Batch of 3 targets.
Target 1
Amino acid sequence: MLDFCSPYLCNVGLGSVRSSTTTITKQAPTMSMTALSNTSGFKTLTLASAIFLLMLGATVSVSSCKGCQVPQGSAASSTELITDAASSTIRISSGRIAGYIDGGVYIYKGIPYAKAERFAPPQSPDPWEGVRSCRAYGPVCPQVERSGWQSDESAFSSAWNDGFPGEDCMRVNVWTPSIKDGPKRPVMVWLHGGGFETGSGQEWPSYDGRSLAAGHDVVVVTLNHRLNVLGFLDLSAFGDKYRSSGNVGMMDIVKALEWVRDNISAFGGDPSNVTIFGQSGGGGKVSTLLATPSAQGLFHKAIVQSGSQLRVMEQKYSRMIGSATVRALGISPSSIDDIKTVPYKDLLEAGNKAIEQVKALARADSFETFIFGWAPTVDGEWLPAHPFDGKAPELSKDIPMIIGTTLTEFCPSAYFPSLRGISKEQVDGILEGKWGERKDGFTKALRSAYPGATPQDFLDYDVTFRPMAARQASLKVRDGNAPVWNYIFSWESPVLDGVLRSSHCMEIPFVFDNVALHNTITGGGEQAIELGKMISTAWTLFARTGDPNGAPGLPEWKKVEAGHDYVMYFGKRVTLRDNPDSALLEFLSNYPYSIFP
């Protein structure tokens, strides 16, 4: 399996920018990290998109936020672990639950928000008698084994928690500063990465919500839902009973948002102030929810991190995958219900083979989408249209958004040591193979955005996620009434001799204010912690007010406007730039993103 983070250098070329700039200057010794071993050499650049998927981690830290006030009387000042049921028991729609209090934060894990038969829409969970213990994470959706464990460096820096699999995986986890006081807090619902195929709401240390709850006075929710063949196998060709099967994974998320609406008040949260945020595949889920009628009114703000999903699957192809899977399993249409008892591994194997077969047909048809196969399907009913295909969805035009990427995303040099410090002549040869006669146009466009770029940067700088994010932002501004803020996370990790750069997922520990907790990917240095406080404060201010401005040290973050693509660069220098890479985006617009991977 190639992991996709279920789950993107600020000081490069920015010296000539004449705009407000904050420089983070505090320094502290970072933790000593094992040097990166010299792994396999670089073969071809076209292999990179697959290898990069090995980089999935995230990080968590416990730190308070300067400038954020926690209401007097909340438990956020305590460091005691309290586990008796009486201290944390609350009543939700299904019954009473007990969690625990850690560092003053009330924590509840593994709460059922739904149940479902295989391939059927989610239903409300069965109620229970007495007090249910909700102190440990619940099952994660079954998925292929994580290939990232095969890389010592990825395993070290990501520090995954793979959990235990189970098809009854619809669970939420909640962190809140208090369940006792009166004022209701903003709610932030995290959607994990991994495409729509892998991952969970607990896989990274960074997903821990304690720091956001304690230091920023918000209620944090993470969740698990059905993925891959269990969440997105389209069997609608086999009758009305299965008409929604191609989207049940997304239907689970909507059901979780309904659970938040109905129950979050018991945790001190405000159901009328809910922000959905997600990274990579989680950003794709956020993008899809913006175009989902049944999700309308269940959230009020949205953040897309390295996952601007513009197009999804079409039923022509998802039905082909469903039919090919059924044939491969030897199931006749008259016995279609037998698919409910097929062992998971056999089901997934048949489904993955079907995807490869149908993908060839889709390529012949020039069908374009970023993720082909296990992904939501435009069915004309539950999902009427592609999320951002030529226009932004009308039903979410009033939803404010933050949209961004990291500067190096799936960074080739992180996985191919031979690319580190590569010469210009060598880079020219690689770019010639990729761009052909358009190579000079590409290098000119990239250098216009980053005048100080090194030869290695021409391979490492992202040219896939950023164009989709810029396109999503421009459509949202053109077709909506709500503000949009754009960013590029350009801070480079010092871990493993700095080879990770600002790779895919690197911003997650900063968003969650978990830089120290996930120090295997951030290094946990003081500079990084300060940047994490700035970013997490901006994210939580956005959740609270709909505007990320006001974080200590953050320059004025202007919203995107027609003709002005303002981008906040979060790095060692925090800088706002106007249309920083317009020539590069213009060049890349002539080469649409292809089916991935």
Target 2
Amino acid sequence: MIMFLCAVTMVLPVSAEDGSSGTASEEGITVTITTDKAEYNAGEEIHYSITIENNKKYWNVNSTSFTYSNSEGIVPVSDDSMPTQIPEIASGESYKLDGTLIGDSEVFAAAAAGGNVPVGIIAACVAVVLVIIAAVIIIRKKGAKGAKAALILIMTLSALGTSVILEAAEYETVTIRPYVKLRYAGEEVMIRAVMEFHVQQQVLEIGVEDRELAKKVTCHDPSIFRDEDGTYYIFGSFLAGASTQDLFDWTSIDAEFQGSFTEDTKAQIRAWNDDASAGNWNDYLWAPDIIYNPVMEKYCMYLSANGDNWKSNIVLLTADAVDGPYDYAGTIVYGGFNAEDYGETDAPQVLGESEIPERYITNSVDNRKWGDMFPNCIDPCVFYDDDGNLWMSYGSWSGGIFMLELEEETGLRDYSVSYETDIHSDAYFGRKIAGGAYVSGEASYIQKIGDYYFLFISYGNLEAAGGYNVRVFRSETPDGGYVDELGNTPYYDKYFFNYNDSVGIRLFGGYKWRNFLTGQVAQGHNSAFVDADGKAYIVFHTRTTKGTEEHYVKAHQLFLTKEGWIVAAPYQTNGESLNNSGFAVSDVAGDYEIIIHELDIDYGSLATNKPKFAALTEDGKITGELEGSWSLEPGTPYITLKLDGKTYSGLTLTMKVENTGIETMVFTALGVDNQITVWGSKSIE
């Protein structure tokens, strides 16, 4: 959409040999307005041209229409002398349109006599500008949710005789403001524009012979487990499940797994918190985590049984096989109790108090203040530390993420361990390790990788437009204190809107490689593990920019930078291995697609970070849309990049480009000062 306005832009006109010319450029797109003369007598025709050059690499300009609003009195010679359509302009191409204008004799007669432009016309122009500016502000602040309000606002333009076309598409907007000055009948006039180009990145088409698509499954909140025979299993909310031999092709086991639960086990799970809003028996069962307990010689499933009004608990189920059948063994922790049902929990045993403590009344379910201090007992993660101690992290929005120590002999709470009661601890719920104050954060998962315990947390809302994203912190001990690369803790002691916050290393946000038909968004609620061969992986569910809430499971390999921080591989895992001896400079050098996972992303409009294009030259330079330098650490996979003044530390490896069998060089790195992640993939064109 292109709209010519009455606003004066900050683009200087350029004198042409025989006429006037004004040029403006933005993000590789250049617009030039040229007239056949610089000065015109009254009654002369103005022949002009508008040339649009699309030098934005791998981006097309969508076809669009526009309207004019030149200086008062500059009008078309005929109905078809001012063209209003621009076709799609492919990357590397240009388009030129020609038109003819003339000065209105009455206006320029009035000007010649010392008349002024009518005040009403000036006011109308100002109103048009203000309305459009307001609409833009609404859209930018509210994203897709503000589009309807903006549309209503823009419709007021019809009263001013101006039409606006709104398009719905997956595009980005490039705004350019060219204008040209000339003299007509002795007066300075302008042809001017605000051009809003909707641009879309070209999809890199992959031949049928090179396609390699993974078999996908739907499993929300997947928790990974590797059985003794080498089979990998995931189990998720609503007791979904799947298995795989390679973390690439998955097979659903939903029906068999859900069908293995007896009516007695179902009833025991529901005994505390039967959720009135649940439909099917498993609708309120969330995010199980399974480990094998060698002392018990049992597979232990820790399962969230979520209820209304914070009445939630985490139960332990045990089985002789990873896929069941499971029997109820007990409850680890209860949430959402009040004075009436306090005695139905194990809190009196833990606290040694037969009456409910005052803090659970001051912040209670009855006055709706429970979540100000205390957790929703969901999203368990159970793991052994290096000393063989068994831990469980759990919790969510509201009170935050807590940690309890479990007893290896029973798999239940270790009643011999006590906890303080303070701002980051509670004698019943355990030690708080993250979150609080209703700040977003859920799905804690802790995994020892290298020398550190890494805490994964998902910020944001889980829906496609909810800004879901994985954050990472690390600690030398399993129960804290966790920090990110910049030293920030994951605690929030007062409310803060943290979806795009800089606290916590964001492994990836919304992104779209050129060979993807749709972008990846709302990736989260992950698990992680270190395989028998030492490779580490993150497993998560992802949604897309398709416009639905469909989701599926992906696994990416994880690596440690030389500073000991986690980075994720740019593509879904497909059998790749890290070359610990590294690569030669000549192997790594080449043209790259580079995705910088910028934090400030309009997730509400399903926005994604898309590749920029740059060359890593053999002399250590980076040129193109990004500029800087790069170097390899000989004999290692480590790479250091300086991109637009920021330093990133990471690793190089070869991978199959996702959804293909084509192997290429890639890198994954983390900003040492801004903890922004960056991915690079050597061009396969």
Target 3
Amino acid sequence: MSGRKTTRRQFLEQAAGAAVSPVATAFLSSAKAQPGVPSRAASTEKPPTSWTRVSEHLALFHGPVNVGILLDGQDKALLIDCGDGRVQELLPSLGVQSVDRILFTHHHRDQACGAGRFTQKGAKLFVPATERPYFEKPELYWQDLKHRWNYYLFHPHRLMLVEGVPVAGECKEDQPIRWGPALIHVLATPGHTDGSVSFLVEVDGRRVIFCGDLMYDHGQLWELYSLQKGFRRGTRQISDYHGFMGAQWELKESLHRLQKATPHLLIPSHGRIIEKPAEAIEAVIRQMDICYDKYVSISALRHYFPELFEEFQGRPGHMPLRPGLPVPDCLRHIGTTWILVSQQKKAALVMDCGHPGIVQTLQEMQAKGELGPIEGLWITHYHNDHVGGVAEFQKTFDCPCIADEHLAAVLTQPMAWRLPCICPDPIRVHRPTKHGESWRWHEYKLTAFYYPGQTLYHDALLVEKDDLKMLFIGDSHTPAGIDDYCAQNRNWLGQNVGFDRCLALLEEIQPTHLFNCHVDLGFHFRPEDIRFMRANLAEREKLFGQLMPWDHPNYGMDESWVRAFPYEQKAKPGQSLSLQVVITNHSAKVQPSAVRVVLPTAWGGGTSHWTQASIPPKAEHGLRLQIPIPASVPPGRYVLPIDVRHGPWDLPQFAETIVQVQ
């Protein structure tokens, strides 16, 4: 591109870019201790085990998850959840010769991945009624590509078993279960998952509730991304994608249900035995309310869906919405596409192409003389409503595609990533740009920026001419604030990461106009608005840090802090599979990490060897694994869970990778 007349060939030659890095560099940026979690360095050594005698007939195994052990006074046991099965090693010392049955609070892998150890020896599994398919036939989830591509729904959650287990029965609301010396009541407690249940165990004169991951400790939750869920207000309903903490209202109702049951003790799947349940529950609800208020106070959703947040209107500490600005004559807006038009031959630079119909509209505009040659395509982010028409665009128009290098890594290799709203079709990116890279296009100066706002893989384009400084920010802002309504988009908290990094850039370049792809007007943030939002994010880092037990809240908000790269790949029997497990160390100190892959039954079962690394603070690092595929493996789509140890945390089957054996 040039300030002088530019041929399409010259444009293409100037648009030649550097090669795309297969792993996008992570830009990170404070800390707190984990109560009730043993402190040990991650290693390949077998972690120590501990247990607590709750009463004569009730014990608790402290493994990756807490496992309840109900004893019949002879040689049988009933388990509540089983984790990775490690509890089996403790049972002989308690006089247990066999496990009669296992009751599960919810379907997540960390609760149930060891179930096969027990069913092989005759144990019967009883699961939440509505989650039975996720235990018996999880392959229906993994084989259904609606959970893989272009997805906006996160229920059921991907942290489910990869191979089915036999189910003997269901746990239904208010169902009494008599076993040995105990009476167990099933309580429906949705929130962490839609079908979660809790178990009120009455034994030895005590009332003990096993509540799964409904809460973690006094005033704390285990993580937040499982609460991503759509919700309704009046006639207006939004999908999971827009529902940050959207399951909180179900969760609160469930917590109140636990309070009404007046237990002596509350035992979560992760965390300590809670000796003052009522106080702990009230503290959780209070902290959630504080955090959610901080979130809403600068949420972009107040612009899109004001009726969903009417109860928050007029609250002190909430940023007022900014007025719209007229659109300069050099711009056109169609769907989620902005078009920059040059005075020279009405040449056009197109920003995003979310639907094939946009291509037809562009051709019609050309036929009417409203547009001249299409000379470039800038992509703001990878979501399907912004790139769904790019394939048709690239067939139709002979011009380069330009995007930030972090985003280009996703666009060019979509199979390698698991992210919301991602399309399966690779996109040709001719010019991956670096942060701050500038060039001329006709009468405009263009500058590309890495802009990790709505998603971690996002960019922005500054267009300057005379007094105009127009910043095209994709979906990262509306006049109401910031678009951080989907935790799965990887919206990090911390100084100079995520939206704080974006807002610092706004302070630096001081654009006259901001343009969102879904908003047909421009808008502008004043310096005081930017300061307000940055202060909000800094306070939010502390408040969300108090809500969760991790040493930084990003662990509980960034579902992909452990991810397989590539997430999905094709292979043949007899080949060696190469894989990186990429860990984002959100901590402020070096963390030892170790990973291994759990092999499918059809591959012979077992696990790979552990791979270890010490990961610097605020950095992303890939741990490489080589996994041989047996020559006898039949064709199919296989899901391989990944065991993770990071710092003091022991996380069985915490992530997964997919292999299509051809």
